[in-house]
Amino acid sequence: MGVAGWGAGRLAERGHTMSDPLFNKVLVANRGEIACRIMRTLTDMGISTVAIHHAAESKARHVQMADKAVEICGETPVAAHLDMGQIIEIARNLEVDAIHPGYGFLSENANFAAAVAEAGMTFIGPDAETIALMGDKISARNFAEKHNVAVAPSVMPTDDLDDFIEKAAGIGYPLLIKAAAGGGGKGMSIVREAGALVEAARVASSEAQRYFGDGRVYAETYVDHPRHIEVQVLGDGKGGAIHLFERECSVQRRFQKIIEEAPAANLSAELRDEICTSATRLAAAANYKNAGTVEYILGADGRFFFLEMNTRLQVEHPVTEMITGIDLVRAQIEIAAGKELPLPQSEVRTSGHAIECRICAENPEQDFMPETGVVRHLGVPEAEWLRFENALTHGQKITADFDPMLAKLVAHGPDRDAAIERSIAALGELALLGVKTNIDYLARLINHDAFRTAELHTGFIAQHRDDLAPEALNETERAQILAAAFLGFRQTRDLIVGTPEPHAAIGGWRN
User: Domain-by-domain residue ranges, the chain?
Assistant: First the structure.
């Protein structure tokens, strides 16, 4: 089912029509599947779209979808997409009204949000002050604690390493060492004894400096086998906020999610309400504007602690759209244009269950190392309960320039069991040839007994590593696969059944 089918109907009731666009022209400061996703809603709303791209992406799908596309320059494709000045200058020249940052790149950069506003354009996201507040994990943690949102016991960094170690020992081990700025699992490590703390802090600080330009790290109590629960919120910037319920994001590798679902399984109504209410309380206290996500760790004892707030659209937003019927990108655009929140909290409802699988160019058998290649074939299953978010094209080169995530397969069902069965079936039908992916691995993971019974935690993949490995092929199966692959090559087919020249030139006829 398409994006518009899930979200357009409800939000249209709030008074928006195609003949009355909220913005005339929006530049999408991103690429790939999320740029395509955003452009679909913009087009549905009657808003003109502008794409940006590096020379290496000139034939990309998001470039083809946009009403106008402009090349951006940089030493690398990533550097080009991070060039704030260049992007804003393009927007100025094209008389753009607003910029949507998507996720990643500049989406949580307070300086970019401020520069967009200073240039007289609307940033489709929270204001720069809110991004700065919530983008720094230490300030966000302190703000959460001030507003009665539970935080894990922690130790702030000091210049005195001995003092830092002493305070860490005071709250006990294990500890989680984290970068104060940034995210995505960078600058993060688990310390289980005092002797490992010094080296872990040094490595985390170095990695944080390399990725985020900020070497500050801090330590907090590590909850063994925690669940990762996040709450989708929308704020109006005036103290009003609603939640669109929670998502389960516990299945991760290298601290990065690969499967997300909504709602979270095995949560009591009381615990769900407590977590979601905590998130809206935080958003309201921050006068949060636009879409955001409040993330928590949840222990087996039912205690939950604030983890961080992502001040942007999340990769996994489709599962929330699938169960609520609310188009989050449309809501973002409407709020940025000064409209009220799409619904009062009392009218937000959920229906069924949704699961998202991140399709990545990586090798699960080699510690999920990224893979490269060329898209030779893409076969996508179709169903009204299925979404395949992607920007893939035939012949597209998959390089190491960007994140290895290629697409997202999202399945909805009347309940979790149905969503699981539909996800497995869809993964079985999905064909992506030319680059190694994690498609088969995801199918095995979702089919695992522990996943089916929702025995989930952030160490799920490590715990079940042996179970999730592919079964070894016997000699007969190996020979059959090699034979099929050999016969699949055009050169082989031509040798066996092709018509040789000169007969081919006259239609294959021979006497």
Answer: 3-125, 153-221, 227-468, 474-511
